[in-house]
Amino acid sequence: MKMKIVNRSVFCILCSVLLMSCNDFLTVEPESQLATENFYKTPANIDQALIGVYGTLKPFSKYWYVMAELRSDNMFEIKEAKQYDAADCAQFNATGLLNDNIVANCWFDHYKLIAAANVLLDKLPQVEFTDTVSQQQYEAETRFLRALSYFDLVRFYGRVPVSLHELTIADAFALGQSEPIDVYRKAIVPDLQYAVNHLQEVAVDYKGRTHTERVSQIAAEALLGKVYLQMAGYPLYADTKDSATTCFKHVLDYAQSTGKYWVDDMDTWDRMWIHENENSHFIFEIQYECAASQGNPVAPLAKLSNTAADEYCNAYLTNGNHFYVERELQQHFLEQKETPIANEYVYKDLRGQWTIAFGGASIDEETGEMQIPDNDRNNYMFKHFEHKIKRAALGYSDMDKEIITSTYWPLNFPVLRIEDIALLYAECVGLAQGLPYLNRVRTKAGLDAFSGAGETAFQDAVKQERRYELLGEGHRWFDQVRQNTFVEDSKQKFITYRDKYDAAHSNDYTVYASRVSQNSALYPIPLSQIQVRDGLYQQNPGY
């Protein structure tokens, strides 16, 4: 058994991997499956290899949803940890997390991307291109993807091993952890700086074909800004906030001058969560398609344990587990306009209709207010669940017959959005310069422009707006850690449920709250990794 762990954890992850192909990013059939030492001969081989690296992004959205979104104060998991791995993340179960499959697979899948990227980057110089720009484009795209993977790893696990080249087995067994600041300085920042300097406005392959689904220069600058801002916060507090601000401003200026990315009306906002509109409004997306095991894994996670599942889609999704939006946050999206249409519920925040589904909710005939049932089971994340009722309401044809199983959902998952960047910029520059960006996001959703007084009120409004606009997209936990509010916020979530909503399980919520500490900022290094070689890795505090 221990040999199996070694093979899977070290050899498969950190050493060279067989070339992986995926048609999510390019609709061509792979030419062949060749050993890495014989494969990298032509630009076409490099192009196919890069498609394989993009393909390894496929499971990442699941980890952002479970390990970041579900762990934050945005969402809740009502099942006991012993019944479902995701509950270990949501309930801060340190013991369960050591052997949690989601936490372990997150580590494995991120290093799978890194291993594939390292092989491509090592082989790239030996391939002859007709022009230097194309070769640099492939290197820049690959380095962006590697940086994205390391960025997740350092935020989830802290001290992680860093390799920028293909490793031998001996090298892998000797590779220890790097300090978080070194992960940023040795891997993430240099990779993204190279990407910013060598990517084009739209990705172009070796044949001159453009690819809006692949990484652009603006995507690299947006991610670099997010990296700098994360470094400027807890626990590193590096002097990088000004660099983040500069990156964000470049991205926003580009979007303004080109008319790209911004969505200023709710009809377009609603429709951008339908797969026919992919690669139109997001800066960068993980690509999915309607095929077996090629769909977005967040779709079935967003819609679980609902007795009306068959009314929404052909693929039955009920499996006994359910993640739902935190009750206080639900109330924001349920809040009614002051002058509603007679006998009709009208959301004050227009994003509410397609952000959260409120199964079992009803309008009180006397007060006209929306009432939600005490049982949250029918409330779920609507944003990522592109079912037939939602499609029909927005004027799209029924694709129910195409969704054969829960692995077929084709809707892309956003990695970078202009609203994310705009609100981070507003946070960085404050009220005087940031107000127009906050209000552009708010007023599009039907909310009043910010009218608070002072910088503190403005920063609070920016934080809340990030919750409303980006709910379900995996940003909230990283914001809370960066701002060092995660302990207080997480404890308060459980205490609120104990005291206000679910007294029957008060003891459980008390336990969950007691588990949260400063050590909760990181997940444990998976036990399967710790056991590969005694003394190679040091476990994170608290586990």
Helix content: 40-55%
Oligomer: single chain
Count, helices: 24
Coarse shape: globular
What is the strand tally? Answer: 10
The CATH topology assignment of the domain at 2-287 and 525-530 is: Serine Threonine Protein Phosphatase 5, Tetratricopeptide repeat
State the CATH architecture of the domain at 2-287 and 525-530: Alpha Horseshoe
CATH top level of the domain at 2-287 and 525-530?
A: Mainly Alpha
Structure keywords:
543 residues; mainly alpha; Serine Threonine Protein Phosphatase 5, Tetratricopeptide repeat; two-stranded antiparallel ribbon; 24 helices; 10 strands
Structural summary, described in words:
This protein is mainly alpha-helical and 543 residues long. Among the domains are: 2-287 and 525-530, Serine Threonine Protein Phosphatase 5, Tetratricopeptide repeat, CATH 1.25.40.390; 298-384, no CATH class. It contains 24 helices and ten strands. The protein has helices spanning 2-14, 36-39, 43-55, 60-69, 85-90, 94-97, 101-123, 132-157, 169-174, 180-198, 217-232, 241-258, 266-271, 298-302, 327-334, 352-355, 388-393, 418-429, 431-444, 455-470, 476-482, 486-501, 506-515, 527-530, and strands spanning 75-77, 203-204, 210-211, 284-286, 323-325, 356-358, 362-363, 370-371, 379-381, 413-416. The strands form five sheets. It has a two-stranded antiparallel sheet. A hairpin with a 5-residue loop joins strand 2 and strand 3. The two termini are 23 Å apart. 46% of the residues are buried. Mean pLDDT is 87; it is low at 1-33 and 306-310.
